[in-house]
Amino acid sequence: MSISLAAAAGFASDIQTDAFKTKSGKTVVITPIKHASMRIQYDGLEIQVDPVAKYSPETDYSKFPKADVVLVTHEHFDHFDRDAIAALSKDGTQTIVNPSVRKMLGSGVAMTNGESRAIADGVVIDAVPAYNTTDGREKFHPKGRDNGYVLALDGLRIYIAGDTEDIPEMAGIKDIDIAFLPCNQPYTMTPEQLAKAARTIKPKVLFPYHYSDTPVERVAQLLSGGGIDVRIRNYR
Fold it and tell me: Which of 39, 60, 133, 165, CA to CA, is 20 to 30 A from 15?
């Protein structure tokens, strides 16, 4: 991302991007926008995850290239914004959502936990569970409603967990190259829960995200020496 686009869109010009190679040598670039929002570029595809305009800092999505794919994990205001989706949409944009967002938005493709969908040549997305388990907190993200996503780009597997705790289903999420795991109780995980989830999933690279004021440096400390590359980016 250029500095001019970053500044115009409403976030820091010194933002860090991370580039990865797929099995056939294609490049995947991941740019943090904020909180649970990110931009993924791959082989000419523009993918936006949980774009929200008004959540601080405000983001002007009209300054971004139009998206080929928009992923929305669930309907909370820090993940679902119909105006941001509209600003990113063009003819042919695939908006992939959970069923409750499909009802609210009135458009898009609803995926439920366990479903898989090819969205482009060499690009497959799996919807996986995301929910709370701590007593008294199940109401925030009830089991079966929301999605996490595993995005496979030419064999490079990216797990975007959505709002979840360290649920048993994570044991079935295999061969992950890059994981985005949330870290802010009472809504998602503590650093200790996140570290436990990371040890279960065993990604090569881990980005704690959705962390607000949680001291996510603790995650890096807990996982030190465990073979997981923990990268702290601006996902406050």
Answer: 165
